[in-house]
């Protein structure tokens, strides 16, 4: 094997050939960063045991642009996003796979930075990347790097979370401020200079989830409000459960610089993507207890009860505004922020 | 919800927004084609139970160009490829996930054709696509559609297949003719007109694998020779097991039109990708029995014992040619066929 020139080299078509150059890329870049016993098996698949219980599988393809942003990059995001999709079922995420689609000419130094960031996120979360794949497309047929991650996990006994479980009277909780990720990306993309004050909230939420379901196993459902933001995710859940929702705007935390940036950009923070927040719906009588658990966790310090599930055959999400009026919070129509994750 | 215009519509950025348009695309195209109880859960993750045993996970990103070819398309290929990666461990593949990266402007009719083909391949294989994700990138930042699939399966008790298990004296078996997939793609891409006589071998091999491990559980390892072809895959296994290999060229089946196309194109069929063939290494004394099982299966009718594992501290793969000489079968160096899968 020859040494990759990571400092100055670029991705070439030959790195996707299946031959020696691909083996070098995998060995010297991916395997070295992800470094675990499953990858070391060296097969086209990873083998492991899972604790008993229902298995959960989630997948996400990541195409965020730009690739690097305050608070993370496509690498850490691809780990956090899929861990969160698994965790929202109440499951403990166990293993990840990663598929890379690289564009010819992409700097190996940037790829290494991304892969190292993935490895760090995976190690911090305790969820190893156990198998993967690499493809290369010609210059102009991709955009630097796309990463598809799949996660599997196991649901602890006694949990039955699903988006169709919300019931009238339930409380709606949110783990923290909204809009941080989307506004960070957009500000960077448009060169607006807000990045000094704002930062993506990209983070893996499974330890927060574990604390929540441990204390309140009756949680009906959880979901992370990514693309389409809080508004769209709540509409999905209302639709799925056949209920309406009534929110209180004053309870929804939005950080001041994010609010300012949204005003400047003409964005409604309710529709802006988050990558480190969750919505939980639980029986009203357990809501205060759940809130306390969330606030006691570093990732839920700003958690709030933001509304109530109501009966509504139209499955509308409505909101009492800070001015005391009422507004509809509709599905996201049209496109707000392309390639946010 | 409004109706998608599948006949004349195109992928728009809004289909990746997370909002209503994305929900319509998922509902009217993906969910309808894949149609199963897990997708119907409507959550960002699928839940299921697995039979007891070691779990296997494999992932592949598919960027084949062109998207449609004799014998399949990127949709069926993305199902077959990942099922095969899971099956090569001896596992029964159970579930698949699929992540789509779509290029703005891609015809919805073509997308539907691909998705229907995936659905058919998944149903034929009995391995449902239980969860997925859709992203859209701007025109010129992708190439129609890329599909990342991940599969999970469970290894029957008593099996311990791995690329590092080959031992001197073992027999090397191949399930059928080589080169069909790669030559088909290249001929099509270069407008050579060979497609009339040739066809991709893309197929899911898990039922062949099940028959093989049932009869000969002592199989040391299996692998499907995709990118890099038979030559590269054997070199990988030789390296991993710390052995050499001695092949007999006369035993390696190559279909006549494939041989002719390879000659015309200046390709060595040993290095051309396959998508429906497997290599198995087993103890010599079980080789004839394994061969009989393979030949009795529709996917292994042309199976052959193509060589022997030998002691070799250099881990060389060598071949006795049809002319009685000997040649080295080295790793694939450089790039033969980009975007073959």
UniProtKB/TrEMBL annotation, chains A, B:
Pfam families: AIRS, AIRS_C. Residues 167-318 form the PurM-like C-terminal domain. Residues 43-155 form the PurM-like N-terminal domain. CDD domains: HypE. GO terms for biological process: protein maturation. InterPro entries: HypE (IPR011854), PurM-like_C_dom (IPR010918), PurM-like_C_sf (IPR036676), PurM-like_N (IPR016188), PurM-like_N_sf (IPR036921). Belongs to the HypE family. This is Hydrogenase maturation protein, carbamoyl dehydratase HypE. The lineage of its organism: Bacteria, Pseudomonadati, Pseudomonadota, Gammaproteobacteria, Oceanospirillales.
């Amino acid at each position: 094997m020859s040494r990759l020139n990571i400092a100055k080299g670029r991705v070439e078509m030959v790195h996707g050939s299946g031959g020696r150059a691909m083996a070098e890329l995998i060995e010297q870049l991916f395997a070295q960063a992800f470094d675990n016993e499953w990858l070391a098996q060296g097969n086209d698949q990873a083998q492991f045991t899972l604790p008993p219980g229902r298995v959960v599988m989630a997948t996400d393809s990541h195409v965020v642009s730009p690739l690097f942003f305050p608070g993370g990059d496509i690498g850490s995001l691809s780990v956090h996003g899929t861990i969160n999709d698994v965790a929202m079922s109440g499951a403990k995420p166990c293993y990840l796979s990663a598929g890379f689609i690289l564009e010819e000419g992409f700097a190996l130094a940037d790829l290494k930075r991304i892969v190292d960031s993935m490895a760090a996120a995976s190690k911090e979360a305790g969820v190893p990347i156990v198998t993967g794949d690499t493809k290369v497309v010609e210059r102009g047929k991709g955009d630097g790097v796309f990463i598809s991650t799949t996660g599997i996990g196991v649901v602890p006994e006694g949990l039955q979370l699903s988006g169709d479980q919300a019931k009238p009277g339930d409380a709606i909780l949110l783990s923290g401020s909204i809009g941080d990720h989307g506004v960070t990306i957009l500000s960077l993309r448009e060169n607006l200079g807000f990045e000094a004050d704002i930062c993506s909230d990209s983070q893996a939420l499974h330890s927060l989830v574990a604390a929540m379901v441990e204390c309140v196993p009756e949680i009906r459902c959880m979901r992370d409000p990514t693309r389409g933001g809080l508004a769209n995710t709540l509409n999905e859940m209302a639709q799925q459960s056949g209920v309406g929702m009534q929110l209180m705007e004053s309870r929804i935390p939005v950080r001041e610089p994010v609010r300012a940036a949204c005003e400047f950009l003409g964005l409604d923070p309710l529709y802006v993507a988050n990558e480190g927040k969750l919505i939980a719906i639980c029986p009203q009588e357990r809501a205060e207890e759940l809130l306390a658990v969330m606030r006691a966790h570093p990732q839920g310090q700003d958690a709030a009860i933001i509304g109530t599930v109501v009966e509504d055959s139209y499955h509308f999400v409505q909101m009492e505004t800070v001015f005391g009026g009422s507004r509809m919070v509709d599905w996201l129509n049209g496109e707000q922020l392309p390639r946010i994750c």
